[in-house]
Amino acid sequence: xxxxxxxxxxxxxxxxxxxxxxxxxxxxxxxxxxxxxxxxxxxxxxxxxxxxxxxxxxxxxxxxxxxxxxxxxxxxxxxxxxxxxxxxxxxxxxxxxxxxxxxxxxxxxxxxxxxxxxxxxxxxxxxxxxxxxxxxxxxxxxxxxxxxxxxxxxxxxxxxxxxxxxxxxxxxxxxxxxxxxxxxxxxxxxxxxxxxxxxxxxxxxxxxxxxxxxxxxxxxxxxxxxxxxxxxxxxxxxxxxxxxxxxxxxxxxxxxxxxxxxxxxxxxxxxxxxxxxxxxxxxxxxxxxxxxxxxxxxxxxxxxxxxxxxxxxxxxxxxxxxxxxxxxxxxxxxxxxxxxxxxxxxxxxxxxxxxxxxxxxxxxxx
Length: 366
Ligand SMILES: Cc1cc2nc3c(=O)[nH]c(=O)nc-3n(C[C@H](O)[C@H](O)[C@H](O)COP(=O)(O)OP(=O)(O)OC[C@H]3O[C@@H](n4cnc5c(N)ncnc54)[C@H](O)[C@@H]3O)c2cc1C
Ligand code: FES
What we know:
This protein is of the alpha/beta class. The chain has three domains: 33-126, Roll (Ubiquitin-like (UB roll)); 129-229, Beta Barrel (Elongation Factor Tu (Ef-tu), domain 3), CATH 2.40.30.10; 240-365, Nucleotide-binding domain of ferredoxin-NADP reductase (FNR) module (Rossmann fold, 3-Layer(aba) Sandwich). Helix content is 25%, strand content 30%. It is built from eight helices and 17 strands. The protein has helices spanning 2-29, 54-60, 99-103, 208-216, 250-262, 284-293, 319-326, 341-353, and strands at 35-40, 44-49, 79-84, 106-108, 118-121, 130-141, 146-155, 166-171, 181-186, 196-202, 222-229, 240-246, 269-275, 297-303, 315-316, 333-339, 361-365. The strands form three sheets. Strands 9-8-11-6-7-10 form a six-stranded antiparallel beta sheet. It has a six-stranded parallel beta sheet with strand order 15-14-13-12-16-17, with helices on both faces. A five-stranded mixed beta sheet has the order 2-1-5-3-4. β1 and β2 form a beta hairpin. The radius of gyration is 23 Å and the shape is globular. The mean pLDDT is 93. It binds flavin-adenine dinucleotide and FE2/S2 (inorganic) cluster (FES). FE2/S2 (inorganic) cluster binds at residues 67-69, 71, 73-78, 108, 110.
């Protein structure tokens, strides 16, 4: 009885999957949606070829929407308000779109296909995002798994960004990917050096972009990027600042500190950087010197598993615990966090418990 039931369920599932695959293939290769009209912010009208995802369609028109997963529906960054023409929500969108956002017709632009005339809203700041041709000027090992990539901009030859923001690298097709993909990286250099961007890129095993940068990209090679994006930047207030980062999360904090040092910004800043051992610390000497350049800055590296050879006399344990020990009260303080989702969630708990309101905690999770 149970076997018969399992066979029926299995058969129905298999038929459903086959039908879904046939529909997707038919949609991709047979359906012809012709030309459709995209209306942007009620003013701009574009005639585009129908049938492709909204994200890619806009990119062809040199309108860049943030995305970190290359359109796979796994980063949630490509949200846009689609006022008409998008059809029903897809199952791939729903994990990223809250009930409130559904009520406002917010969609994942990488999942929604342009099949008919569509009316969309694009935040004004995204119209200043540009595509840049750049050259890999220098690639430096910062740790055993993080490289610094210095990109010299060719055309346009300068970028205007806020310290803390990110750009996207376009990875060409190569051995690990049969299509070109985009990935997000925070800029680690200062906005004052407008003719270049530096990135700190941590190798993810089998990762498409990081393997390309670590193992294939050579100095002198051309790289295409676009940006700037993001709302992770220093707010213009008089509050004290606590920064917490781990791994390549150092990048945007370094940019923010360089910018503050150049501007003589006298706000109190304490930066906790978490790593496992001494060899995982990113630019420890440079970060110490940078904090000393700030009128009121402090850099606190924290090792979670220092080895005997490390001869470590600094802070130990989880970076969140070190920050909690330091932060007696969250009064008049705002926080900037960058690192893994687990680290950010733990930090938010600690910081809100210490009295920092959630709306004064800014972060980039990756
Ligand atoms: C706003 C923003 C800023 C970012 N800034 C930086 C930065 O400054 N430096 C940096 O190194 N990265 C940064 N990232 C992450 C970056 O965009 C990529 O996701 C990451 O480098 C992996 O890309 P990939 O193409 O090599 O791996 P993919 O090909 O995308 O992934 C391969 C596999 O690894 C898994 N994976 C992806 N990322 C991770 C991870 N971090 N840890 C473990 N497994 C993973 C995937 O689920 C997949 O199974 C940022 C992300 C965002 C959203
Ligand atoms: S969810 Fe990542 S680009 Fe759409």
